[in-house]
């Protein structure tokens, strides 16, 4: 395979997944900080992975901002790593944050949408997702290893989540730490990246 795995990993969990995927694919491995669009030109298959911070996959703009600059013609796959991704609502929100593009629509089928009834709206916006397959993988969290800025962010996150009993498990992860990294979770990504490439 003519493939590359590009990753952004702040604390190491994403790098583990990226290395495992690269090994399975026989792909090159490049840290996102050392990768530019021109570095991706030689590859037919690109896998990008990053840690999830406030719903955003760190560094995924390398893919999304360059999608219409040649990447849409390649086989591109993404993965995000975090400790809150097991919830379907969180995954859906992450998809919209990372791959959603807003566009104005006046299509007939949109006239019945609730937003269209608002007289204050001159234009009706819709979110369209870029056609990039993305998987969400469980990460790790070690409160003792947090950098100064991240400590402040986590204090704020904890405060915002504290009032909802549904967040009990995540709050436990934040307080005590966790390591949910699971090599078996890369299987679908590897299979998708290999699909159709075996004879090439």
Number of beta-strand segments: 10
Biggest sheet details: 6 strands, mixed
Proportion of residues in helical segments: 25-40%
Strand content: 25-35%
Given the structure, what is the number of helices?
Answer: 7
Gyration radius from CA atoms, angstroms: 19 Å
Rounded mean pLDDT score: 86
Task: Give unreliable regions as ranges.
Answer: none
Task: Tell me about this structure.
The protein is α/β, with parallel strands linked by helices. 32% of the residues lie in helices and 25% in strands. The strands form 3 sheets. Strands 1, 2, 3, 4, 5 and 8 form a 6-stranded mixed beta sheet that branches. α1 links the parallel β1 and β2. The longest helix is centred in the last third of the chain and has 14 residues. The model has no long low-confidence stretch (mean pLDDT 86).
Question: Which secondary structure elements does this structure contain, and how are they paired or packed?
Answer:
Elements: E1 3-8, H1 13-25, E2 28-31, H2 37-40, E3 45-53, E4 56-57, H3 61-64, E5 75-82, H4 88-99, E6 100-105, E7 124-129, E8 134-138, E9 140-141, H5 148-161, H6 168-176, E10 178-179, H7 187-194
Parallel strand pairs: 1-2, 1-3, 3-5, 5-8
Antiparallel strand pairs: 3-4, 6-7, 9-10
Structural features:
32% helix; 7 helices; alpha/beta; 200 residues; two-stranded antiparallel ribbon
Give a quick rundown of the structure.
The protein is α/β, with parallel strands linked by helices and 200 residues long. It contains seven helices and ten strands.
């Amino acid at each position: 395979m003519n493939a590359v795995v590009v990753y952004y990993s702040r604390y190491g969990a994403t790098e583990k997944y990226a290395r495992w995927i690269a090994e399975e694919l026989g792909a090159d491995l490049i840290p996102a900080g050392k990768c530019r669009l021109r570095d991706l030109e030689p590859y037919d298959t690109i896998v990008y992975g990053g840690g999830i911070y406030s719903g955003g996959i760190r560094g995924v703009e390398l893919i999304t901002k360059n999608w219409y600059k040649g990447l849409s013609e390649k086989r591109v796959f993404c993965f995000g790593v975090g400790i809150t991704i097991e919830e379907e609502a969180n995954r859906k929100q992450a998809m919209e944050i990372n791959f959603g593009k807003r566009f104005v629509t006046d299509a007939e089928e949109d006239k019945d949408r609730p937003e269209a009834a608002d007289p204050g709206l001159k234009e009706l916006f819709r979110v369209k997702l870029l056609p990039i397959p993305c998987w969400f993988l469980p990460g790790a969290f070690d409160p003792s290893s947090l950098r100064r800025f991240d400590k402040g962010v986590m204090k704020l996150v904890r405060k915002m989540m504290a009032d909802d009993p549904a967040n009990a498990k995540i709050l436990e992860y934040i307080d005590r730490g966790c390591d949910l990294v699971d090599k078996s979770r890369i299987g679908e990504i590897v299979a998708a990246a290999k699909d159709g490439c075996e004879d090439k």
